[in-house]
Amino acid sequence: MQIVSAADERFAAHFATMLHSAWTHHPTAQFHLLNCGIEPATLDALSAYAIRQGIRFNVITIDIALLRGLPTSQTWSVAIYARLLIPDLLPCSIERALYLDADCIVVGDLTALWQMDMGQAAIAAVGDTYGAHLEREIGIEIADDDYVNSGVLLMNLVVWRRDRLGAAAIAFIRQYHPCLVDQTAINVACAGRIARLAQEWNLLAHALLRSEQWREPRIIHCTTDIKPWLYRDALFASIYLYHRNKTPFPSDPPRALHRSRPRHLLNLLVGRPKYWRRLILAWRCHAFATAYFSRIAGGSARCLQG
Asked: How far apart are the C-alpha atoms of 184 and 135, rounded to whole Å?
């Protein structure tokens, strides 16, 4: 299994968290970090950590000049575009790669995803109607059913290389300036060649907050502003902190609450459905986290006995 992610210095600790979570479930996977401006000391810490843990770890430093002129903001850096270079950065002998955003947490076995038959699809990904809505507001017409989230991508590198999809995505960004730049460009470049995945493979926090549906995840994606490293009432915060504190970049639990308890209780008392849905969702996330910790503790014990 070839797992690829990208990070700059700001997201290096979150990448390490994702790395530990994925390695926990797939200790023989090959991990590739696309380095988009990580400080040398941080890289040294990551590499030393990988050696100690026995993680198969490869750092690929990105030539930022290749991405010069692409839009950035306070929210995203050029690291978001690195995934477009994956087909050219990995050896041609590697025919598929699983790309994971640095703010993902792997909480289950990914074998079924990795081994799926992609046919001639360029990517396999989970739908994300929010992104399509944003693009339609600025005149880029994309149907909800055709739009996917780019934070978890199973990439058919044979198709990407053959059809130069990375270059097509970059050209689209330069011409049309979409809201969700890399994500929309990938959707357009891969249009008609996208295999849709079930929600469990990329549980989007922003979609979960708006939906009453619940799917037990294999991958959790921290897509809202309510990040588990910022707020202690963020969904799945305990799982994030568990894996974060197994890395060279441990963190104390955040003290801040996204919503104050008095405000939350008041809205529950007046019966606002949104707050009751969030309470039920929080209970489900807590129950999942409890079962998750029990499961991985059992797995660790079996490894030690073996």
From this structure: 8
* 13 alpha-carbon distance from chain centroid: 14
Residue 27 lies in a domain: yes
Predicted model pTM: 0.90
What whole-number distance in Å separates Cα of residue 99 and Cα of residue 83? 7
pLDDT tens digit string along 136-174?
Answer: 888 788 877 889 999 999 999 999 999 999 999 999 999
- C-alpha distances out from residue 132 to 166, 185, 194, Å: 20, 12, 15
Q: 249 in a domain, yes or no?
A: no
Q: What sign has the CA pseudo-torsion 220, 225, 231, 232?
A: negative
Domain ranges, residue 129? 2-201
What would the two tokens of residue 274 be? 């949104």
Which tens digits make up the pLDDT trace of 233-242? 888 999 999 9
Residue 86 belongs to a domain: yes
Asked if 274 contacts 256 with a C-beta cutoff of 8 angstroms, the reply is: no
Check which CATH number belongs to the domain holding 31 and give it.
3.90.550.10
Q: For residue 58, is it left (φ>0), alpha (ψ between -120 and 50) or beta?
A: beta
239 within domain boundaries: no
